[in-house]
Specification:
The protein has twelve helices and 20 strands. With 431 residues, it is an alpha/beta fold. The strands form five sheets. The chain has a ten-stranded mixed β-sheet with strand order 9-7-5-2-10-1-11-15-19-20, with helices on both faces. Strands 14, 16, 17 and 18 form a four-stranded mixed β-sheet that branches. Strand 19 and strand 20 form a beta hairpin. The protein is globular, with a radius of gyration of 21 Å. The protein starts with a strand and ends in a 7-residue tail after the last strand. The protein binds guanosine-5'-diphosphate (GDP), 6-O-phosphoryl inosine monophosphate and magnesium ion.
Length: 431
């Protein structure tokens, strides 16, 4: 009954999509447990590029079943578009391989409009959200006025839920945010259209996944975002509104903690972040632009330029601690290929006090200084390396340095976006 959770262990965009795609080959089913279409998971297969927002990256492997769990917030419009994109690219069996938990909450136009309106109102204090209605939908879930995927089964329920949401949002849009109120009938009609596609895919998610696990199937669990964006463990308030931590996989799928057999953290060989909030090892503008170009660091969902910085050990140490990581899967090593020297943030000095872990709270008034170590670069291309032995000596030393700093083994090294640009240092990830 092995279940392997893959979590992003920085601020998202670590390359989870690529890693989940590769490891799907070893699994029977792949499940998402949190987030929504704020996620952008890019997978390159041959000459084709797929950007997945809601559907687990396992969908690109023949025969793999995929579940969108109860903890995900599903925008029916975005999901329908994604299904259509996959079918138009030749995945005709998406309808038979994709399941959606009927308890997953739905993102409606109200929450998307409110997300954008609230960001505008925050002005300079904005979070830099993706504008996909994520925070407002989790908010409505928590205040118990949200609409769930199962409600799509009945026109009566659709209408009742939409009317409830309209009653709440309309006065706010009109009187506070100056936003045109969506027409209730239009929203209902659109949902009835999406229901035709999505209702046949609905399942009792927890029952579905627990039955697979009971049957001894290998389940891969795909995190979205990253641990430092976790609503509880991230750089609040500059976070997303869900729990990418493996605990989120238990609640977001209806799985017992005992069912989770391993947790692997995807870590970029440097650091990136999109949106606002602290990023201690961030490069200056000029060097940031260079690495951004080298690494193609532009948001897969919003196209925004990603902020770039050196590898930050205190960030990954906190992620490893709160997630109980067993191992690290290191991506984008090749992006550092040309550098003469490379820095690693090894510790911080926060308000004059040394610490080796990212602080649980960090305010604007806190002083934070990063303590760096410099190592020589390898100035050799790694993107065609197929084995660990083929990597340049200094690249191996860089990998060993990260292992030493975090105290975890690096089980995979990724050196280009393709499936074959992946160096495995162990064979079986479900063992
Ligand atoms: P995710 O959100 O964690 O799935 O990551 P994204 O897909 O948003 O961003 C990662 C980007 O890096 C994607 O465009 C991937 O195709 C690309 N990528 C993944 N692994 C590698 C790698 O080892 N080297 C390079 N150069 N690109 C990679
Ligand atoms: P993947 O799965 C990187 C960031 C946003 C913003 C904050 C809150 O591709 O790694 P939200 O729209 O969630 O309310 O925005 O979280 N963010 C991400 N950053 N990768 C992501 O997903 C992200 N999803 C949300 O930029 O700072
Ligand atoms: Mg992404």
């Amino acid at each position: 009954m092995p279940a392997l959770v893959i979590v992003g262990s920085q601020w998202g965009d670590e390359g989870k999509g690529k890693i989940v795609d590769i490891l799907s080959a070893q699994s029977d089913a792949v499940a998402r447990y949190q987030g929504g279409s704020n996620a952008g998971h890019t997978v390159i297969v041959g000459d084709k590029k797929y950007v997945l927002h809601l559907i687990p990256s396992g969908i690109l492997h023949e025969g793999r079943m995929c579940l969108i769990g109860n903890g995900v917030v599903v925008d029916p419009q975005s999901l329908t578009e994604e299904i259509n994109m996959l079918t138009s690219m030749g995945f005709n069996d998406v309808y038979s391989r994709l399941k959606i938990s009927d308890c997953a909450h739905l993102v409606l136009p109200y929450q998307k409009l409110m997300d954008v309106a609230q960001e505008k109102q925050r002005g300079a204090g904005k979070i830099g959200t993706t504008g996909r209605g994520i925070g407002c939908t989790y908010g409505d879930k928590t205040t118990r006025c949200g609409m769930r995927a199962g409600d799509l089964r009945s026109e009566k329920k659709i209408r009742a839920k939409v009317e409830t949401l309209a009653r709440y949002y309309a006065p706010l849009f009109e009187k506070v945010y100056d936003v045109p109120v969506p027409n209730t009938e239009d929203v209902v009609r659109e949902l009835l259209g999406y229901a035709k596609t999505l209702v046949p895919l609905l399942v009792d998610g927890p029952l579905w996944i627990n039955n697979l696990i009971k049957a001894g199937k290998k389940v891969l669990i795909e995190g979205a975002q990253g641990i430092l964006l976790d609503i509880d463990h991230g750089t609040y308030p500059f976070v997303t509104s869900s729990n990418p931590t493996p605990g989120g996989a238990c609640t977001g799928l209806g799985l017992s903690p005992q069912s989770i057999t391993r947790v692997a953290g995807v870590v970029k060989a440097y650091t990136t972040r999109v949106g606002e909030g602290p990023m201690p090892t961030e490069f200056d503008e000029k060097f940031g632009a260079l690495i951004r170009t080298e690494g193609g660091e532009f948001g897969a969902t919003t196209g925004r330029p990603r902020r770039c910085g050196w590898f930050d050990a205190p960030v990954v140490r906190r992620a490893a601690m709160v997630s109980g990581l067993n191992e690290i899967l290191l991506t984008k090593l090749d992006v550092l290929d040309k550098l003469e020297t490379i820095q690693l943030g090894v510790r911080y000095r926060v308000n004059g006090q040394e610490t080796d872990i990212f602080p649980s709270t960090l305010d604007e008034d806190d002083s934070l200084e990063v303590i760096y170590e410099e190592v020589p670069g390898w100035q050799t291309s790694t993107c065609n390396c197929k084995t660990y032995d083929e990597l340049p000596e200094n690249a191996k030393k860089y990998i060993a340095k990260i292992e030493e700093l975090i105290g975890l083994p690096i089980a995979v090294v990724s050196v280009n976006p393709d499936r074959d640009g992946t160096i495995f240092r162990k064979e079986d990830f479900f063992a």
